[in-house]
């Protein structure tokens, strides 16, 4: 493909992207395919010769798109959102044009320096304290996901506590066998997975009746573990848990950790986006005593996946755990100590020019445009709750709605012999089997619940109102089927 053909095909691709977004409203969210469908449609071997572009495009339409789940659909209410926006798409196009691998400053100075600058911008926008800015000992770095972020900081915390205990006369072998990390029973599974990779013990601490982690829970477990000879070294507190968007009592937890060697990480992957709105920044109480903090801009801030922002209070902790400079990576700029080499702030060596899309998004929307998007999503979630409340015989809201998430379940019905959990599970399956809406389920305590989360910029009030109507229809169909079965 030469430049002129690329120009032609590129224009066609832009037109196709525009048509895709224009048609999202009328396309079912979930695909109607079965596992293994694609293997039957594609050849066993890669082509030996070049194929016509028309054939490649046609196969994309006929084989790939039918198997796609449409995350940008206005009827996508599952998981947490994964926003895209046209400015971010264009930024990714330019990033692909440049195609640099920015592991060292010299590999592409703009790639490194823009990342430092925009991470400072975002830090200020969401209200983090100055200790997380790059002009001090801290700074920000873009990871692929929050899972990568928690692994990176857990490795840093591990090295920090090893170094500290060595000074007390312990051997590294003694230390590593006693390390234990914590998260609440509502923390993302990434925390436990990170502990598996780091090869340390992990405990899920019990949350309270509102699914929040309290300082007292942390204190009692730490005291018990210390008595048993373990070394607590890491804990994750969450702003916006995965199941119910609950927020842990960070200030209480931070107070509990004072005077200890425990690294406090704040996972705000989803709800951290809301901190761009001043009315949510009260949730930051206690964060000034944390060692690291992350949000996923690719969830709720109109920035295409992947783009997880991680800040650390002392970047030296990352360097101590992850810095390794073989001869082939040595260069004058790095040796000068005047530049940041982000390869030392992450697991892999290579990295994309992801800061470009943050820069484009922040400039194209402005902080007020992003705040408008967050507030609109929250308003639509409240509208969903309002519509759902019109059917009190059917539905109960399980927890107090938070941010743009509503958790609800079906109440037991007199004419059925099914439990609330069984009815809720049946409703969940009915909704998703229709493929017209997409939701996820979870367990809160012993209660099965359906999670309904708004986040797509394409979702309007009519989509939320229509979703409730469909959910009611599915509910009544389930109850009718059960009644007929009993009769």
TrEMBL record:
Q: Which residues carry this modification: N6-(pyridoxal phosphate)lysine?
A: 299
> Do the record's keywords include Lyase?
yes
Give the GO terms filed under biological process for this record. Answer: amino acid metabolic process; carboxylic acid metabolic process
Q: Which cofactor does it need?
A: pyridoxal 5'-phosphate
- What organism does the UniProt record list as the source? Paraglomus occultum
Task: State the SUPFAM superfamilies in the record.
Answer: PLP-dependent transferases
Under the heading Pfam families, the entry gives: Pyridoxal_deC
Q: Which Gene3D superfamilies match?
A: Aspartate Aminotransferase, domain 1, dopa decarboxylase, N-terminal domain, Type I PLP-dependent aspartate aminotransferase-like (Major domain)
Single GO molecular function = carboxy-lyase activity
Q: By what name is this protein known?
A: 6661_t:CDS:1
**What InterPro entries does its record include?**
Aromatic_deC, PyrdxlP-dep_de-COase, PyrdxlP-dep_Trfase, PyrdxlP-dep_Trfase_major, PyrdxlP-dep_Trfase_small, Pyridoxal-P_BS
Family membership: Belongs to the group II decarboxylase family.
UniProt keyword annotation of Lyase present? yes
Q: What keywords sit in the KW lines? A: Decarboxylase, Lyase, Pyridoxal phosphate
Question: What would be one Gene Ontology cellular-component term for the protein?
Answer: cytoplasm
């Amino acid at each position: 493909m030469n430049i002129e053909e690329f120009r032609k095909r590129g224009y066609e691709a832009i037109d196709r992207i525009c048509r895709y977004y224009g048609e999202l409203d009328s396309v079912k969210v979930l695909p109607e395919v079965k596992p293994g469908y694609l293997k039957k449609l594609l050849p066993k071997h890669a082509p030996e010769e070049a194929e016509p572009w028309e054939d490649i495009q046609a196969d994309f339409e006929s084989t790939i798109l039918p198997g796609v789940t449409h995350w940008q659909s206005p009827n996508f209410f599952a998981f947490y959102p994964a926003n895209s926006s046209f400015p971010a798409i264009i930024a990714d196009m330019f990033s692909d044009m440049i195609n640099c691998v920015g592991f060292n400053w010299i590999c592409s100075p703009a790639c490194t320096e823009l990342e430092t600058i925009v991470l400072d911008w975002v830090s200020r926008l969401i209200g983090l304290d100055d200790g997380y800015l790059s002009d001090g000992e801290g700074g920000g770095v873009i990871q692929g996901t929050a899972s990568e972020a928690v692994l990176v900081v857990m490795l840093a915390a591990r090295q920090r506590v090893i170094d500290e205990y060595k000074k007390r006369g312990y051997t590294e072998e003694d230390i590593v066998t006693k390390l234990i990390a914590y998260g609440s029973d509502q923390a993302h599974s990434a925390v436990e997975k990170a502990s598996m990779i780091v090869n340390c013990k992990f405990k899920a601490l019990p949350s309270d009746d509102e699914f929040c982690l309290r300082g007292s829970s942390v204190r009692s477990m730490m005291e018990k573990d210390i008595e048993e000879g373990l070394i607590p070294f890491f804990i994750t507190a969450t702003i916006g848990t995965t199941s119910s968007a609950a927020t842990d009592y960070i200030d209480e937890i931070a107070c509990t950790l004072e005077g200890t060697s425990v690294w406090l990480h704040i996972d705000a992957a989803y709800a951290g986006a809301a901190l761009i709105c001043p009315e949510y920044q009260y949730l930051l109480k206690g964060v000034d005593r944390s060692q690291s903090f992350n949000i996923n801009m690719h969830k709720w801030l109109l920035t295409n996946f992947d783009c997880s922002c991680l800040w650390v209070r002392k970047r030296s902790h990352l360097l101590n755990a992850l810095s390794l400079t073989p001869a082939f990576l040595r260069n004058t700029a790095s040796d000068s100590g005047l530049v940041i080499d982000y390869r030392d702030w992450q697991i892999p060596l290579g990295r994309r020019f992801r800061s470009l899309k943050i820069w484009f998004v922040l400039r194209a929307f402005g902080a007020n445009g992003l705040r408008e998007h967050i507030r609109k999503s929250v308003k639509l979630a409240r509208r969903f709750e309002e519509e759902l409340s019109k059917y009190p015989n059917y539905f109960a809201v399980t927890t107090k709605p938070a941010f743009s998430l509503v958790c609800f379940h079906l109440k037991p019905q007199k004419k059925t012999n099914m439990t609330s959990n069984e009815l809720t599970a049946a409703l969940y399956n009915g909704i998703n089997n229709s493929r017209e809406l997409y939701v996820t389920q979870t367990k809160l305590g012993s209660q099965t619940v359906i999670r309904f989360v708004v986040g797509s910029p394409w979702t309007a009030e009519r989509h939320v109102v229509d979703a409730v109507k469909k959910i009611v229809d599915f509910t009544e169909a389930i109850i009718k089927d059960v009644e007929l079965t009993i009769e």
